[in-house]
Amino acid sequence: MYKIAVAGTGYVGLVAGVCFAEVGHQVTCVDIDENKVNVMKSGVSPIYEADLEELMQKNYAAGRIDYTTDYTSAYKEADAIFIGVGTPEQPDGSANLSYIATVARQIAESVVKDCLVVVKSTVPVGTNDKVEQFIQDFLVHDVKVEVVSNPEFLAQGSAVHDTLHAERIIIGTESKWAEELMQNIYEPFHLPVVSVNRRSAEMIKYASNDFLALKISYMNDIANLCELVGADIQDVARGMSFDNRIGSKFLNAGIGYGGSCFPKDTKALEYLARQNGYELKTVKAAIDVNKDQKTMLYKKARKRLITFNGLKVAVLGLTFKPGTDDLREAASLENVPLLLEQGADIYAFDPVGAENFARVYPEGKNGKGSITYVANIEHALEGANVCFIFTEWGEVRALTPETYKKTMRTPLVYDGRNIYNVEEMQESGIEYHSIGRKPARREAIKEAKHVELQIPRS
Q1: What pLDDT band is residue 421 in, cutting at 50, 70 and 90?
Q2: Domain 3-196 falls in which CATH fold?
Q3: Which residue of 9, 250, 312, 361 is surrounded by the most CB atoms within 10 Å?
């Protein structure tokens, strides 16, 4: 087993470190935030991720993992140092590599033995060549340091499972020594390893994520056309899924992709293409479709309602997907400000994301509207004039049409994740709008009732 250091304790670094400890390696995770380090030492995960906290506690008790702000002690005698810090998107779409540069400088000044520096962060093609040269320029001791590209393919919400049971491990190396050491480090996982050069490994990450983003945007584009021509996107997707060349994954239409990967990686690859004098038309189209799709529900509701001013608006789901507390590029962040701007009184439910969202939009009066965070879905729906579903949490899926009918003042639902059966909502007397499917209309609704529910407050 090997002595491993991990720089960064976010979704990439912490999950990697815990999983390396789980298979028997000796791991030290490094973070600059002392409070965060103390929280992790106490067995509490700073991020919401299934099974992560349990494995943190188990491996800390077994002495296989520790957390520190002292990067020198963590790096100096490590066999491999994994970099899992962020590479946030810059205004022009390029990746911000300043965090990686900082860690690389620290490594160069700390290591006293031959070691690998393994970049798990998503970086533009060619970055790891530069990182290796950067480290060489600042090396204090006469040791061999080689940089390896080892991109991660985990999905938030199932990151631990995706790491321990990955479909493949990609390693990009430039020497036999580095390749063999990486093979040995991953041997306890008993997973397929694909060994390529560094630049190919970097491109595999971008090409994989952008292909999935393309698939999502394509299905959303088709869904919008389905609505116009009277087809049902779920039937269309089911028919497509039987073709092995297409498969059944990423065929669900909705209100676009979010999170830390797809939005950033599509823009970064499109930027890389432009920098090399090439127009990556397919990826650019995926970006454009996704941007429009995020506010599709709001645009539908805006046509249906006279105003949101004074209306109680239930918002179910704030995170970009279920199973995580991550709000990055979430549809809620696009729609909530539009609703507040129109004077909506929002009652928002999310089982794990509300606290993070409240840091962006504090509870209470906000612009022309207001926002209240509730711990119970029924409290959000009670007396509501309209409901928006942005995240398909299990608690939302478990709701019956009758709950909407009995609880809401006006059973008007805009579902961005196509959770419910259109016919069942129709039979229950609920006006229901989703993505790529016909709407369910309430029958025999008096026009006066519509007007009454949409009168602006004085």
Answers
A1: very high
A2: Rossmann fold (3.40.50)
A3: 9
CB of 314 closer than 8 Å to CB of 283: no
Check whether 108 has a pLDDT greater than 90.
yes
- The answer to whether 104 is a known ligand-binding residue is no
pLDDT tens-digit readout, 113-171: 999 999 999 999 999 999 999 999 999 999 999 999 999 998 888 999 999 999 999 99
- Name the pTM for this structure: 0.89
Distance separating alpha carbons of residues 406 and 403, to the nearest angstrom: 5
Cβ burial of 147 (10 Å; 0-12, 13-18, 19+) is buried
Which tens digits make up the pLDDT trace of 288-339?
999 999 999 999 999 999 899 999 999 999 999 999 999 999 999 999 999 9
Contact between 201 and 149 under an 8 Å Cβ cutoff? The reply is yes
CB 86 within 8 A of CB 47: no
251 is in an annotated binding site: yes
Q: Which CATH architecture has domain 205-293?
A: Orthogonal Bundle (1.10)
Sorting pLDDT into bands at 50, 70 and 90, what band is 450? very low
**Is 3 annotated for ligand binding?**
no
Q: Is 421 annotated as a binding residue?
A: no
Residue extents of the structural domains in the chain: 3-196, 205-293, 296-453
Residue 31, annotated as binding a ligand: yes
Render 376-423 in DSSP notation, one character per residue. SHHHHHTT-SEEEE-S--HHHHT--HHHHHHH-SS-EEEETT--S-HH
Instruction: List, by residue number, the catalytic residues.
Output: 261
Class of domain 296-453: alpha beta
Those residues whose C-beta lies under 8 Å from the C-beta of residue 306, and which sit 6 or more positions away, are: 451, 454
